[in-house]
Amino acid sequence: MSDLAAQPLDGDPAARVLVAGANGFTGALAAKIVWDHPRLQLVAATSRSDAGKRLDALYPRYRVPIELTELDLDRLEGIDAAIVAYPHGAAAPTDAALRAAGVLVVDLSADFRLRDMDTYERWYGEHGAPELFGTGVYGLTEIYREELRGAELVATPGCYPTASVLGLAPLAEKGLLAEVSIAAMQGTSGYGRSSDDLVHFSAMTENAFPYKTEGHRHRPEIEQELAALGSPVPVTFVPHLLPLDQGELASCFATLSEPTSAAAVRALYGERYETEPFVHVLDGPPNLRALRDTNECHVYVTVAEHGKVMAFAAIDNIWKGASSQGIQNLNLMLGLDETLGLT
Amino acid sequence: MSDLAAQPLDGDPAARVLVAGANGFTGALAAKIVWDHPRLQLVAATSRSDAGKRLDALYPRYRVPIELTELDLDRLEGIDAAIVAYPHGAAAPTDAALRAAGVLVVDLSADFRLRDMDTYERWYGEHGAPELFGTGVYGLTEIYREELRGAELVATPGCYPTASVLGLAPLAEKGLLAEVSIAAMQGTSGYGRSSDDLVHFSAMTENAFPYKTEGHRHRPEIEQELAALGSPVPVTFVPHLLPLDQGELASCFATLSEPTSAAAVRALYGERYETEPFVHVLDGPPNLRALRDTNECHVYVTVAEHGKVMAFAAIDNIWKGASSQGIQNLNLMLGLDETLGLT
Amino acid sequence: MSDLAAQPLDGDPAARVLVAGANGFTGALAAKIVWDHPRLQLVAATSRSDAGKRLDALYPRYRVPIELTELDLDRLEGIDAAIVAYPHGAAAPTDAALRAAGVLVVDLSADFRLRDMDTYERWYGEHGAPELFGTGVYGLTEIYREELRGAELVATPGCYPTASVLGLAPLAEKGLLAEVSIAAMQGTSGYGRSSDDLVHFSAMTENAFPYKTEGHRHRPEIEQELAALGSPVPVTFVPHLLPLDQGELASCFATLSEPTSAAAVRALYGERYETEPFVHVLDGPPNLRALRDTNECHVYVTVAEHGKVMAFAAIDNIWKGASSQGIQNLNLMLGLDETLGLT
Amino acid sequence: MSDLAAQPLDGDPAARVLVAGANGFTGALAAKIVWDHPRLQLVAATSRSDAGKRLDALYPRYRVPIELTELDLDRLEGIDAAIVAYPHGAAAPTDAALRAAGVLVVDLSADFRLRDMDTYERWYGEHGAPELFGTGVYGLTEIYREELRGAELVATPGCYPTASVLGLAPLAEKGLLAEVSIAAMQGTSGYGRSSDDLVHFSAMTENAFPYKTEGHRHRPEIEQELAALGSPVPVTFVPHLLPLDQGELASCFATLSEPTSAAAVRALYGERYETEPFVHVLDGPPNLRALRDTNECHVYVTVAEHGKVMAFAAIDNIWKGASSQGIQNLNLMLGLDETLGLT
Lengths: 343, 343, 343, 343
Known about the structure:
The structure is a homotetramer. Chain A has helices at residues 25-36, 55-58, 91-100, 117-124, 141-148, 159-173, 201-204, 218-228, 262-273, 319-333, and strands at residues 15-20, 40-46, 81-84, 104-107, 137-138, 153-155, 177-186, 209-210, 235-241, 248-256, 279-281, 297-303, 309-315. By secondary structure, chain A is an alpha/beta fold. Chain A has a seven-stranded mixed sheet with strand order 8-9-7-10-13-12-11. Chain A has a six-stranded parallel sheet with strand order 2-1-3-4-6-5, with helices on both faces. In chain A, strand 12 and strand 13 (309-315) form a beta hairpin. In chain A, helix 1 crosses helix 10 (319-333). The first copy, chain A, is globular and about 60 Å long. The first copy, chain A, starts with 14 loop residues before the first strand and ends in a 10-residue tail after the last helix. The interface between A and B is large, with 48 and 48 residues.
């Protein structure tokens, strides 16, 4: 390995971390957060297609002077934890190999988010490691914090479920939700690095549009989590692509099961998130610039003219919606303060 | 008047047109469309604050070489029609003076959109010409075409009502709507020319946010029109500002009063808009770039997993959402082909 | 051929036109301009990789309802003229085949722009039709108008040479230029449709940078044309990519061979371009929005503190910098008014 | 004073800092950097027009929970240093009052940048504190580091001079420069918070243009500093506004006084900046995204075809071009490590 292949050791790291798929948007960001983390050591950042390139050549602004290498699953000695930023399908077998070697795994893909195999297969196809299916902890930190402490395989939620569930959890937990429609929107980083006509600057500038109108795979994930919180309700969901890089908003229209005043709804949100380090309940609508490049979720809730609750939840889709939530969870898995490296 | 104060006469115009408030975004665009129109002659473009400036200095891309003058309501001879692009409140008395002089009026403001004075006063304050209240025709061309032929005072709909009502009309007309939630979004031209911190490029780039979450005055207008079509239903509505200039999308989640298949819903939309020159029913989601700088409305409708109808309607907010729809109506008022000057 | 493969005939066209490579940015725009042109009939739009797709599916805003087909050089009967929007190298042999069949050719590539084969080979490699090299007319309309009337093979200039040479021609023609440095900048449409990391919206938004700093192949083309005008001077040139779609600016710093007052320089520009339909000499700096989607070139010239001339020339890089200039020339080749279809 | 008026004390600050004019872009950023700085305590952030508002309401992303107050020059006890972010003209008298009270002053305005009063008056008008004129240290850290240690009044350079002088200093110091032309470009944050038509999102998106073409006041400042380095040469300079928020590029075309190879020029730059913590000499052209929100300057230099040197220097115009360079200098004034709070 070259001098560039691992972060110089500084003090006693809580874990030596591998990032697999570090050439994509979320993998590269995960590598950056690990690199800047006071207790994690980035020992390898891997990529098949970009092996040999430096990460700070691909993503200069992240300033991670490490060379991308190919992942060798036979040489995992000295690796305590891995963040796997692979496409769904490809992640599961890698996760399995990493777990077999005793490596803690934070999976950023969809492979372990769903808890029903039929649903998984409908939306994603055949699963790559069915023997592990159902064994991961769903990494929405604010909901599953206790299960995440000491977990060994964590499925980082999809970006839309992160915003949507955090935007609705205080209602769902009280069983107050009857049904919900969600207009979600995010920037082009959510589309991933793989370029095509759609995210060419010339196509996206001065443009915006709904997509996946016939069904987006994050909808069943949102329904799964609202049900787990106590509200097994129908969710209507449509995402939109916006002409910006990072940022995501879930604008939720919720019908409540019983009339509830705006004051009561706000009190509910205030209490629920009072002690959360990263979820801030605002007293006006959130905006995406305010939380870019952070692990925060900004929530605002109000009651509209005819009684529907409108809940707005904003995140940075590649931070709290992916990589930084992964590190928040890794902190818990390692017994560290969950905010470490994230503020 | 200087040589720059009126368009040179070319043939026999159907009407000599004044644009009042031609220094704002929608007034300037109206002046441009009149200028380019084969049967309209732009005889004056007025502005209090920018009088003396040339319109093609303020808006070079519109290429209208006319000098802005102050409106003189005592000298309206030779003017057949006026497009009034004033703020609500200020428009009504000007409209009254113009009508008193026999001038046909297309009002781009909100002053004659609502048909209930209490609702008007709740959202806009005191009305500036109560004697005329209720006498205007609502200028959503595709709905009120017959009333618009020969009308003398037309209230151009709000941009959000234009998109929302066109997106829902086929359902509303059949009485199929039970309730609807609308997440609408538009670019910064909808905010108007009056600059403030919010629309500074440095504030809007890489940003997006909901606004007017406690109530937007376009909601009662949408409810009024859906009711007029046969569906007096509750509307929950929230607008968002996007980092783009021109373009607007209404993403509507509608609960139907009876189960209806996607095929049936699509057939309904197809039939309803089959002969409309400017409303196009697409077979996939619309995007804003495709109709920028046009009078078109692109509609797509589908039925989501749990039965809600999702209807998407896109327009250019300052064209079909304001100025070009005003000219579409003026064409009808003058007995011209409604597409004249708009294709 | 399907009904979608050719434009319905309307009147007596001056030419039946084929656009080869109509799936790229400049080819698609050429097809749109031909489609909208009052005297040209678009009889085929071809593409190897996108054959079978509709052009209005790839570029909805151009509204050209034609199906892309594969080019068949053995079936050119009925085609009077072709616009060839191929990459350099690939264009020349196609041009040769088209010419052999008697088809007038407007080449948008670099294959016939340079007049020195060594220079061509240095910057572009082996030429694909050396027997035709030197036989094309350089299609900078404002300079070569007379040669273009009746020409049979026209090389449309590069976008940077178009702006740069128009910005400097009045000085070059008088032999006043001693040397020039050009900082040019353009939007991402200049990069072409072929997506890669560089033009991903997430990479370009909030970014800008110089590129090809070690040498850009448009520099020798600019030098060739300034020399042809009477000023064989050294040109230092560097392009920049900006976060916008269409638009190009050449900011030129010119040392004159003799002291010349600002007034004299301005008079020179005013006279030179007085009768040009598309080149406008402004009395202040140009901006890109003002001429987007037009064939115009906006020029401003001033003399800086220490005597250098600063000349600024702005165009839309895919209009005047490519496709619409191609049609301007085709008009001349066909004996039509050069502004036809372009205003 | 409310609880929000000063930063809680944490340890022993090196200085208690006031930011005057903290409601503007550069003042707000200065307040943020002071707030996050390990050895500075923000004791007041002042603003006349926004007094009473919270800074984190005006600039949520800076997360500075302090209330803006009005500056009271009679109550400066307990203040060790001030950053003055006032417009030129207004800054000087405030600086004088602060200095009279023994407060160290970092002025972000132009009031003490120039060393020749005639030049000052030509470009800025009457000076507000002529008795102090000439007593400030020019705060281009990499050039005046020794003078800045212990300085009491520091004039932070203009953003364009910062980039331009850092881009040319290695040549200027060796007396190698003969003349230079600079095409500079920056985002809309350089225009300041004061909104007008020009920086409305609707005006700037998809736009770019040169401005101040008849003379920009940063040109004499650049000439002053190049002369001070040993190269009293004529500078031709033109700035451009780009559709982005933060970021600035100076693209410099330099004629050398003697032929110098690219290798020699690069060696010169490499040596000159080898030990600089914030100036990085790249081996390819810089881009603005890579250094956004940092105090860095990225430089690339090459020699063009005909012998001119092309030097490119990129900075974040409100960081290194204003506020963070101010803190870099304040660190030196206080005897601290100059990188403190900036990495």
